[in-house]
Design goal:
The chain is mostly beta strands and 405 residues long. 0% of the residues lie in helices and 54% in strands.
Length: 405
């Protein structure tokens, strides 16, 4: 009978993203324009009485380097900046050292209203062959790429459908070595996490929606099957010897969260008890790593809601705990669990400690035999730029980091 061990960790950062549809929007990536935009065009003449003189859309004269600061002693970081991309959303790696990243780039169209342009996102897919990066054509079925999962020469990418009636409808595509084979999920939410096994099986989960239950998609080698869960998953992990695990939580009527996890027995999911120390006033299980010998690592994040000086509810007392299945941890190594604290990337090691790697803005992390691969972006301030519906002075470009000892 297996048991669990804990190591507490503090300082979990809960990121709240606030989107404004009409006014200002941060983390934009305005492309350079050589001259100010015109104040009016024939297409926006009916709207000209509401138009203000648009601000020039300019590019900063210099951009900061993507090399992270504060690199911890003993780590070597190699940086691969990509100034023509907006951000890299996800990264996956194979045992032979092949690495896949997915992201997006943005382009500005012609002026449409008040002399202002709209921005269009384009999917970006790249592969590292051990020596260099290669740009690959994105699957034609997908207009945006969010998640990638690989095993051997097989790669799966997940994102938004290009021609669907619902612009956020989830689609997938599988790389066969000669081309892409794609399709559409029944779920109305994009895929947020996926894992591929060496035997070709795939497990994927949709983005959480604060429901009291969820499901997992399973590719058995021929077709997708939808399997129900008694909770909403946040992450899925699997290995041939370690089995398939899903972790997440359940929200009650008051939008309060409690943690939950389950394991697949080959036919159905079976819920497992969550140790009490992983249960804060509110808590979720947000990451799971299943290693080949059967070792399982799970990240539990907890918090409580409190009132600030203005009487508004906000999160406080954020904490993180690591659950380790009772098996030998083996030699000291990164487990694959990670988080960010004060803009620093923290990697959890098999010895039970969080290790600061460097200060970088990371969206995803992958573990290889030689170290880590991180995907994210570099942000910096520049001249304020205006587009249809919003303005921004924050610029982004994508970056990938290779982190080794």
């Amino acid at each position: 009978m297996s048991s669990w061990k804990f190591w507490p960790a503090s300082g979990m950062v809960l990121v709240l993203m606030i989107f404004a549809v009409v006014h200002e929007f941060q983390d934009a990536d305005p492309p350079p324009v050589s001259q100010p935009l015109p104040s009016a065009t024939p297409s926006d003449a009916p709207f000209s009485r509401w138009c203000e003189t648009p601000r020039p859309t300019l590019s900063p004269s210099t951009t900061p380097a993507a090399t992270p600061s504060g690199i911890a002693r003993g780590w070597r970081v190699r940086t691969f900046p990509s100034h023509d991309t907006h951000s890299f959303r996800n990264v996956a790696a194979t045992r032979d050292g092949s690495v896949w990243v997915v992201g997006s780039r943005r382009t500005a169209g012609p002026p449409v209203v008040c002399g202002l342009s709209t921005l269009t996102n384009h999917p970006v897919l790249r592969r590292w062959d051990g020596r260099a990066w290669h740009e690959l054509s994105a699957p034609p079925e997908l207009s945006a790429l969010e998640t990638v999962a690989v095993a051997g020469e097989t790669a799966w990418v997940f994102g938004q459908c290009r021609d669907a009636a619902d612009p956020y409808a989830p689609c997938y595509a599988r790389w066969t070595g000669a081309g892409w084979q794609g399709g559409t999920f029944e779920s109305g939410r994009p895929i947020s996490d996926a894992v591929v096994l060496d035997d070709g099986q795939v497990w994927a989960i949709p983005q959480p929606e604060h429901n009291d239950k969820g499901h997992v998609f399973h590719w058995d080698g021929r077709s997708w099957q939808q399997t129900a869960l008694p909770f909403e998953p946040q992450a899925v992990g699997a290995s041939e010897r370690g089995g398939v695990w899903a972790v997440g939580g359940v929200w009650n009527e008051d939008e309060r969260a409690r943690p939950a996890m389950a394991r697949w027995d080959g036919r159905a999911w079976h819920s497992l008890p969550v140790p009490s120390r992983a249960k804060g006033l509110e808590s979720l299980l947000t990451q799971v790593v299943v290693e080949e010998p059967g070792q399982v690592w799970i990240l539990a994040e907890s918090w409580r809601m409190c009132l600030n000086d203005e009487g508004e509810e906000e999160t406080c007392d954020e904490r993180a705990h690591v659950l380790r299945r009772n098996a030998r941890g083996g030699p000291d190594r990164p487990t694959g669990l990670w988080r960010q604290n004060d803009e620093a990337l923290l990697s959890y090691r098999s010895t039970g400690v969080w290790e600061m790697v460097a200060r970088m803005d990371v969206n995803a992390l992958a573990v290889t035999d030689r170290g880590l691969w991180a995907a994210g972006q570099v942000s910096y301030n520049g001249p304020q730029a205006s587009y249809v519906g919003w303005t921004s002075s924050t610029y982004l470009y994508g970056a990938v980091w290779r982190i080794e000892r």
